[in-house]
Every structure is written in C-alpha cells, then in structure tokens.
Amino acid sequence: MQKQRFFRISLGWQILIGLILGLIVGDLFYQNKTAIAILQPIGTIFINLIKMIVLPIVISCLVVGIAKMGDIKKLGRVGGKTLIYFEVMTTLALALGLVVGNVTKPGDSINIQTLSKVSITQYASTAKAASNHGLGDIIMNIVPTNFFEALGKGDMIPVIFFTVMFGLGIAAIGKKGKILLDFFDATADVMFKVTNWIMKLAPLGVFGLIGTTIAQFGLAALKPLALFLLVAYATMVIFIVVIMGLVARIWHLNIFELLTVIRDEVVLAFSTASSEAALPKIIEKMQKYGVSGGIVSFVVPTGYTFNLDGSAIYQSLAALFLAQAYHIHLSISQQIMLLVVLMITSKGMAGVPGASFVVLLATIGTIGVPAEGLAFIAGIDRLVDMGRTAVNVVGNSLAAMIIAKSENEFDEPMSKRYYATFKHDHGKLEETK
Question: Which of 71, 96, 332, 370 is paired with 263 by a 20 to 30 Å CA distance?
Fold first, then answer.
C-alpha cells in the first residue's frame, strides 16, 4: 500500500502531462474540424463542472466566516483594507508592464503587416456593451435587486454582498441562527468533497482545452509574436518573485513557501486559463494554511473581480507593444495617462467576459492605436491568458494571507505545520476535516 502511494503521480504532474499531450495532439490535428469537435467538449465539460461548484462554495464558506466574525465594524475594516491593497497591487502591475515595455521595446522589431489577423468581432460587441457601464455602474450594481437572478448570472460581487449581509444576520440572531450555521458549514464540507472528485478530471480537461486552442491556431502562430510572449511571461515572473516577494517579506511571509503550497492550483489555473478552476481548492487550501475562513472567503472571490495583477501587466504591456508596432511614440505624460485610463477601465469592466481584451479595446484608441490592431495579438490571447490567470491566482492567495495577518487572523503555527506536512508528502495530503 505504501509502495503504491510512493509511485503515485501528483495532480500537478498529471495536469502538466495533460498540457503536453494537448500541445502535441493539437499540433498534429491543426485546423482539423473533427478533432476540434472532439476535443472542445472535453475542456468545456470540465470548466462547466468547476463553475457548477464555485458559487455554492463561496456562499457556504462566506456565510460561515462572516457569521463567526459577527462584527460589522470589523467587516468594514477588512473590506477597506482589501480594496486599498488591491488598488495598490494592480497599479504596481500596470506600472511594471509599462516599465518593461519601455526597456525591452518588443513592438519595435515587428512588421505589423506580417502578423496573422484574427477576427475581434466578438470582443468589439462586448466592448460596446461594456463601455456604457463605467465604474459608477459597477458600484450601483453591487446591491442585487434579485439575489437568485444574480446567482443565476454568476455575478460574483452582488452574490458576495447578499451573502455578507446574510452572514451578519445569522450572527445577529445568536443561538437561533446556529441551525443555519451548521447547515452552511456542512454544505462547505460537502462541496469541498465534490471539488476533490472533480479535480481528478483536471488533466483530461486541460488536455481538451489546450488541444482545442492549438488545433485552432497552431504552434506556428507563436513565431511572429514570440518576443511579446517571452517579455509578457518574464514580466509576470518578475512581478511574482520581486514585487509580490517584497510585499510578502514586509509582512514576514515567504512567497516561495506560498508558491509551493498552491503549486497544483497555479498549474491548473495556467493550463485552463480559468481562475474559477482554481478557486474552490484555493479557498480550501488557504484555510488549511492558516488563514481564517471569514477572511479567505471574502478576499479571494472579491479579488477575482478587483485584483487581477496578471491582467493588469498584460494590458499595459500590450498597449505599449501595439503603439510601438505602429511606430507611435508615447511621451511620459501620455504613458501616465494610459496608466490612469487602464486603472479606471479595468475596474469599470471587471467581470465582463474577455475583460482583459475588452479593456484594451476600450483603451488603445486614447493613444492613437486603431482597434484593428488588436487583431494582431488576438490569436495568442489564450496563451497569454494562461500566464496572467496564474498570476491572478497567486496574487489573490497572497492578498488573503496579508489581510489575515493585518487582522491577527493568520495562524502561523498552523501554517508551518501544513507547509512541513505538504513538503513531506509532496503535496498529496490526505483529505481531512
């Protein structure tokens, strides 16, 4: 029995194998409609399974966490800290993208006429609809008129708002609310168990998703934009290791320890290009890692709307890349204005499908780049999306730890024990209560 466990391949390695096989199969069946028709449902079903469990987990964990917190003043303080932290980190991410873009100048060597064009019609229609809904509308829509309608649409922020109020209500009625608290506590345990079952299908889902992408666009599509891809990924690595590393160090945390603990979830997010795919396990794992349930259940889901560090890096870098490709020189003041515009549009369009691309579409006109320019990088958007999604997952996990530490709700002894056990077992912990 022990020997069987020793040779068992961890989830992270299974996902990487699925990713590699997807790349190979996708390239072998490039533009083969039959192969695409077979591969696409595999990935889609896996993502749908994840989406099915995300909201039940968020609601049940958040209700229990807020009810146990039970203090509206404390909640307000946590919310304020969280939003300030998110704004600072996304601004740093935007600034880093601009700095690296100015230093490396990835667009200068590009012949814009040689790049393959991909239709951006779907993004254009989304951008047009989203452009009428600025930051003010996002604030107005925080309060749902119908909770079940928001639940059906998957609107995370209105759902979080109602759930927070519901959790505070349970805390306010005292012993009478215990039956509800027990119900949601049990619901969370059930959903985590279902999550573990679904995660067994992750390698297959990743195989289908990446296989479909490569079969549609082909590996050859990478060649003209290889430098941009390289610079984008290098910038994301710098942001995690240097910026997040320094922020973690200020709070006496270790970014590499965090990366070790959430490595499977980061690989999953990278492979699927979906933050939702990693969200259930991140919530579960961060609680085991010492972050209080109330903090992690509030910070992580909120971060998936307001703390998209990877997306911020991509937006500023891509905008500068396109300007360079069109030989448009941007002064320092114009780049500062671009940063401000990106800060506003990225928040105003949070939660819009294809948000990063839509933000760019709404922004590049302000620096003189034609909207058609985005067609040149649309073909590799999925490949860049994999990297920025992984950065978003790491950023939100770190945010939960920092906010918990600021509230003295980070159990360091528990964190050290979990990390030690995690390393010893190579990440294959037994699922325990």
Answer: 96
- Check if the beta carbon of residue 219 is closer than 8 Å to that of residue 39: no
Determine which of 96-105, 357-366, 406-415 has the lowest per-residue pLDDT on average: 357-366
Q: What is the pLDDT of residues 23-62, one digit of tens each?
A: 889 888 888 888 888 888 988 898 888 888 888 988 888 8
Structural domains of the chain in order of their starting residue, each with its CATH number? 6-424 (1.10.3860.10)
Mean pLDDT of the chain: 82
Lowest-pLDDT range, 101-115, 233-247, 379-393?
101-115
Among 297, 282, 273, 272, smallest CA distance to 195 is for 282
Show Cβ contacts of residue 36 under 8 Å, excluding neighbours closer than 6 positions.
Answer: 29, 212, 215, 216
Dihedral of alpha carbons 399, 404, 405, 407, sign? positive
- Which residues, including other chains, have CB under 8 Å from residue 138's CB and lie 6 or more apart? 157, 347, 348, 350
Q: How many CA atoms lie within 13 A of 68 on its CB side?
A: 17
Are 91 and 193 in contact, with CB atoms under 8 Å apart?
Answer: no
pLDDT digits (tens, 9 = 90+) for 149-179: 888 877 777 888 898 889 889 988 888 888 9
| Three-point CA angle 414, 415, 419, nearest 5° | 115
- Residue 8 DSSP code: P
**How many residues can be counted in the chain?**
433
- Cβ neighbourhood burial of 51 (10 Å; 0-12, 13-18, 19+): middle
Q: Are 348 and 138 in contact (CB under 8 A)?
A: yes
- In the block, which residue shows the tokens 């105003």? 348
From residue 179, alpha-carbon distances to 173, 186, 294 in Å are 11, 11, 18
Task: Name which of 212-221, 328-337, 399-408 the model is least confident about.
Answer: 212-221
CB 319 within 8 A of CB 364: yes
Beta-carbon contacts of 122 under 8 Å, excluding residues fewer than 6 positions away, are 354
User: How far is the first Cα of the chain from the last one, in angstroms, to the nearest whole number?
Assistant: 23
